[in-house]
Structures
1.
Amino acid sequence: MKAATLRSFLAVHTWMGLLAGMALFIAFYAGAISVFTHELNDWPRQPPAAASPQAPAQAAQALMDATLKQHPQAAESFYLLLPGEHGPQARLYWYQGSVARQFQLGPYGELRELPQRVGFVDFLYDLHFTAGLPRTFGTYLFGVVCILYGLALVSGVVIYAPVLLKDLFALRLGKNIKRLWQDAHNAIGLLSLPFHVIFAWSGAVLCLGVLLLAPFQYLVFDGKLMQLLEPDFELAAHVAASGTRAPPLTVAELLARVRIASPGLVPDSLAYHDAGDANARVEVYGKIAQRHLNTLGGVALEAATGKLLKVVEPRNMPPGMASLRGLQALHYGNFGHAPVKWLYFVLGLAGAFLFYSGNLLWVEARRKRRQPAQPLRTHVMARLTLGVCLGCIAGVSALFVAARVLLPGQERHVYYAVFLAALLWALWRPTARGAYELLLLCAATTLLVPLAGLYGAPGLVAPWRHGTILLVDLIALLLAWGYWRMARASLRRARDGDQNSVWALPRA
């Protein structure tokens, strides 16, 4: 390859990585944790439970009846989440215009409206694909970021393909720290390349899918594309309300009919359309343990009569639905059970390191080796990288602590406070000193996570009887130790390393 061509690919790789790197660090770090979304429902402090515990179907029925009594307009279209994977309590939400309204029963059976995306798990999930920005703007921004991410992947492969076999497993230890970081960056990037290709592709489609379809909708299909795709993406065709009142079957009766229609389906949610009308429809969704990439299944019924309309299982899904659900399963690791989740967790943390190290390598490559004073741009990039990346780490650890100590709905404020404080600290402090202090902050906040696990427990052993809490605590201890070691290494580098660097402390 010509030197000029190689330089062009290197420029693309560098600038696409820099533009997308800090946002992708947040996406990967939060995404690695959100792989265990359902398991983490047991981590936050729970509000007072209802006075009389009910079976999931009865709890969902009570919530639906209370909501429709106070908000009859919700009957047009609403979603009912059963207790289980979506949380220990039933939840109902419906859209009033573009605003989602979410409800739950209180401890005495009273109807409570919850803020949008209120919970610890919901916020962690949002953080993964919005970086904490407003939801609509953040989602579209991350779609663009994923496209830049794909360009960085392609250009990186072109650059390092000629030395792939020679340097793939090279990890040259020694005094040349830049070469060590470069080796680690290249090895992680190439070994996890299939994972990153899946993420870049699926992230762009899931975030920008509607926008990507727009040119075909108006230029090719004369505005009828969505009508053609509707059978592939909807369980049952929507029918207009008849205007005749007909009470729907109870949730328990509908679930009983679902078990007959699809014996392997484990229901977790119900979607109602025109509840209380003779033409009302209900779609029951859940998981089916079949040997397919996607495990989502669904059963469509007439809500008033229970008549079976359609059964969709992974083995008989239409091509469009199978493609979309398969892409979602690949993106979130919703297949292969625990081994795949742990693989995604490790690869997610490795991906976060990839973007962090990429920015630091850019800083190191542009330092002036013959003078202590370094260019302003390298200081700015180094401090932004430290503030955003380490602020995210400290903020997520603080989020875990807040979720355990505070009531639901207050955790996100703690994350934003810690993240913004870390970012401002990184911009204000000398670069080397800020790196050391923020790594110590990451170690300290992560070390608080196991201590928060003790909150509300009657003894010192009781909290670890639950597997989720035990795993969270063990991983937090391991990560806290890693951040502490990194802090020590950064201080040693600042004191004893090359003085002509943004990472050096002035010697007396």
Note: The two ends are 49 Å apart (CA to CA).
2.
Amino acid sequence: MQTTNNTKQINMLSEIVTPLLRWYHSQARILPWRENPQPYYVWISEIMLQQTRVEAVKPYFDRFITALPTVQALAEVPEGDLLKLWEGLGYYNRARNLQKAAQQVMQEHTGNLPASYDALLALPGIGRYTAGAIASIAYHIGVPAVDGNVLRVITRLIASREDIMKEKTRKMIEAYLQEIMPTDKAGDFNQALMELGAMVCLPKGAAKCPLCPLKQLCLSHAEDYTTEIPVKTPKKARRPENLTMFRLQYQDKIAFQQRPNKGLLANMWELPHIDGHLSIEEIKNHIANLGLPIQSIQALPPAKHIFTHIEWHMIGYAITLRALPAHSPWHWISHSDRVESFAIPTAFKAYVFEE
């Protein structure tokens, strides 16, 4: 029975190839990594596009490629410079894994990303989706690249109520797509599915079905199931953490400290802070106990930053000092040095003003 059902799904999906490619070739967005789909560009763009919108990625991609135009340049760049280039994209371990993978490529593949799905999969930070994207787009290898957009498109087309958060569902979709993959246009086909999910087959009831080139083939559209599919297990609630941020300033310098080399935001530069929400009187006492000469103190608006599993609920204080302390646990960094050399996570940007 399962085999019969799989055959039915594959036969149905085989009908999407021609209209989907026709739509893609006429409607695809012009993107820098598509205009020149060399393996390095595809790789960098795919890592950047995880959790980030295409339009937001463009300037980061251009800046990154200008600074680090080759695998060798990425392998050799100092980590601080790499993190500064990545600043604003978040998920800094992705940048670190890029460098680890680049170093492995230099050692094992003479500086060229391997033209093999399995070899790509063996590199740090590259999972099945990214390996499939690089292999198909840059090397024209007939393998699927299944991300969230593709899962949504395919499950809606076949009206599947399998949970897309489960690995077995992803593998099922990969198997279906492998069967219908146009081997001479594998990269275009994968990108077409991604593009359809990003531009037309949108999540949370926002699907633009009248514009879809596959609407006549879509079972969810026919049965009005697009708001119910895909089925997705809700994520666990994030753990809230309350923090009080200090913007300690003397003249043009602000106090920063470096986070531990492991864990959340490893090695990144941050503002001094303390657990909990402190009142202004508690802050005055805290700063006085540190022996810092306060000139003025001002409460700042609250802010929130969301990580994958944690939410920071922050309040802050701008504290101007009369003098720079002779000894302190912080680095006092000027605005110009910060802009040029220090990667400051977005989580702290609400309290790091631009001069």
Note: The beta strands are 239-250, 253-258, 269-270, 273-275, 294-306, 310-321, 331-334.
3.
Amino acid sequence: MKYIIVLGDGMSGWKIPQLGNKTCLEAASSPFLDKLAPLSETGLCKTVPNGLKPGSDVANMAVLGFDPNKYYTGRSPLEAVAMGIKLKDDDVTLRCNLVTLSDNEPYEEKVMIDYAAGDIPTDEACELIDSIKQFIENQNFKLYKGTSYRHCIVAAGGVTGHEFTPPHDITDKVIKEYLPKGANAAVYREFMQKSSNLLQNHPINIKRVKEGKKPANGVWIWGEGTKPALENFEKLHALKGGVITAVDLVKGLGLLAGLQILENPRFTANYKTDFKLKTQTALNALLGGLDFIYIHVDAPDECAHHGDFANKIYSIEQIDKMVGEITETLKNAGENFAVLVCPDHPTPCALKTHVSEPVPYLLYSDKRSIDGTALRYTECEAAKSGIVIENGHTLINRLLNIK
């Protein structure tokens, strides 16, 4: 028996007037998911526990079957694990984004233009990070290079309890009231301001502006956390599993759970990712011996953060094709399987950030016959079943208990 989770990050959302008052799921052409919907269990699932913020870290942890109330210690330590950083028990990690800020105002009056600095390529990003290490690194703080706009700070013997705001929550807003607050806030603010002053005139950013690209003219610190620990997935479920993702936090979750990470440079976190290669990689793994695969597709979320509903719809349509090819190939190979399709959280294009509302899920197995209530895979259709799973980390049990 093969078990598949196809996670469309931020795939659900709110109705959009420009789409005839439809959500992106409703507006998308999704023939494969719509074919499965009447034969599947559908419903809503609360992936973000009360009291926790609706981040992809919390929500993906829940969908993988780990209770965030028990295991969650912050976002950045998951990314640090994925980056290969060896953490001590008293280390505090922080996410460090390269961002695009408006360029004419005094620092605190600048506006957050783009939390991802135009998806800056890794080689350019790493050169920029090297240029600003001088402003933060000492015996207590170390800055680590990551990929694209995502980087990491480790504070040795650090303290937590700061007030940070994710940069994707403040697009088009003045940064002043969202700057770090707490014990080390002065250190972090000084680093952010000095970095902005240097990056503004860095040759890479001058070149990017001339080319019509967004400059990485600032950094943003957020997502603090401490060393996490998850139980081993294979020991818990007696299944050999793998993860396909282009996002470090999901990679970190997989590594902590002992899952195999299936990587490729053509896997990206935006709608230009190689959907077909992700699909083929999943099939090769499943037909090559793995029992479980977690396919994380970040594209819908990235598009929604930019308010780009057209490419969010495109991404959903590519996910639909992924589900179609995976299910048909496994059927033709004579493999029994069950597949769970869901977002981690909704990301409404109007808000350009996450919300904590329950997400629609679809659970199909070729081994059972269901007279489902859903005519399509959409938010409204999933709600018709009346099923609402309050503890998101239990959703995986409905998948793995299908025999």
Note: DSSP finds 15 helices and 13 strands in the chain.
